[in-house]
Amino acid sequence: MDEVPPHVTSLAEQRARARTDRDHARADALRDKIEAEGWLVRDTGDGFELVPRPPFEVWPTVSSVPLPGAPWQARRTEWPERAAPADSTGSVSSVSSEGSATAVHETAASESAVSEAGASRATVRESGARNGATVRETAPAPAPATAAGETAGESVGAFRGDSRKPAEAAGRSAASEGSSAAKESASGRPSAAQEPPAGREPGAGARRSASPDAGRLDEVSEPAAHPGRLDDLDAGRVADTEVAPDQKPEGSELVGRVGEHEGRPERMLFSQLLWDASLSVSRLDEEVTPIEDEEPVPPTTVTVGLVVDGWPEDLRECVRALVARTDAKIIALDLGNVDGAGGVLEELAEEYPRRIETWHVAETPHWRGGSAGWGESRTKLLKLDASEVHVVMETSTILDGDAITPLVRELKDDVVAAGWKGVNPGEDTHQWHEAGPGEVKGVLGHLFAVRRDAALEAGGFSRDARYYRNADLEFSLLLPGTVVALGSDLPVHQERHRGYHDVDPGYRDKESRRTYDRVLGLLRAT
């Protein structure tokens, strides 16, 4: 370890005296001077410890890490949307981190993930010196146009195939008829000159005048007067009628014989064209309901929260399995860079910049001789997260497959938490036994998913829980809903649980009893 310069040690001693005198402003100023010299000061039970400042932003304590919504925040971490496996935050929803930016570098995103909106370009922001977080931001892609924005009127216009207003169509009809009678026909009322003789059916001109869209019928019956208005099918159908003048009914038309076209057969074709046109125009009077595409349901946003308390190789194996076997984001809080675990966390964040958000504090874990409590650290991760589902996971837990999705799938109806290992209390309430699959009283903190809104409603994890043991049971009992466990069917296993086996037994038992007293109170209340 590097030797601490004497003047830095002197600054740390002055800070210790300021803390004793409760001169917190002076203590904070001295801490900043120590950091400016390239060192961090950690408070311990018997004084302080000085360690070299790492090459990433470190906050003094867990409580000092800023939460989303701070007024001074200029940027937020936004998870890029991924190609839908079935979303994101998000976009991915999205996980947020805040802080005063002192050194922000922009690089083009090299990963191939694209959003459901069809984003073809993303920008990644990396910050190694702000708020203790490595921040990567992805520029949001413009939302694709959908059919949902079409109005009923637009749909009708598309159905008609003619965007002219009725008044314009009427004007064109009047011009083609060349008479005041035709102008009256545009309103749907035939003039006296257009009334057919008694006992006779109205001719083509009268039917056109009576139509609510006379202009369209003009185009059909007089294609030469409206070039370019007809499609190929209409043009072919009326081509042979150009030379057919209006006639008086004769032959079979007088006696109503169907199927016999004596006289001028082209008149029947011309009448059929008018009949088809009348049908198509009359459809405009019907109410048309536009068909709107259903918007896809975005995938549930999920983030795994990790408390990093040392043991860097465990951390590396845990994170690599998460990245390889799930699509979940990861947010990690490093407590004191114990054994260099904070440095390994930063290496992993550089390796997987779209998946990992990191925070570092100078406080070391309470269960390793420091002052950072388990409950406070877990609640900080919960509040830093912005996903719908927050996953509590130990770094000793290793995924053998996607064990996250089955847990998230259980969070429906009144189920607010789903875990790997479930437990129920015995009759004396002093012993708990393994339970599940199904509804349980509590889930163990090795691995469980919880609806973030329900967890916040419960107040998060108890600040009084300085150690993990029994604090997971306390949290389960506080949740406002049903808790379930899936059991051994999940593809996951646990390596050596260092939080239990590698902690001083006296400390472990003392803190466990301390937390269990609160658990007993909750059991009696229920």
Query: Architecture of the largest domain, according to CATH?
Result: Alpha-Beta Complex
Q: Output the CATH class name of the largest domain.
A: Alpha Beta
Strands, total number:
17
Total helical segments: 18
Strand order of the largest sheet: 7-6-5-8-15-10-16-13
The computed structural class is: alpha/beta
Summarize the structure.
The protein is of the alpha/beta class and 526 residues long.
What does this structure look like?
Helices cover 34% and strands 15% of the residues. The protein has 526 residues and is α/β, with parallel strands linked by helices. It has three domains: 6-52; 155-285, no CATH class; 302-525, Spore Coat Polysaccharide Biosynthesis Protein SpsA, Chain A, CATH 3.90.550. It has an eight-stranded mixed beta sheet with strand order 7-6-5-8-15-10-16-13, sandwiched between helices. Helix 7 (214-221) packs antiparallel against helix 10, helix 11 packs parallel to helix 12 and helix 16 packs parallel to helix 18. It is globular and about 80 Å long.
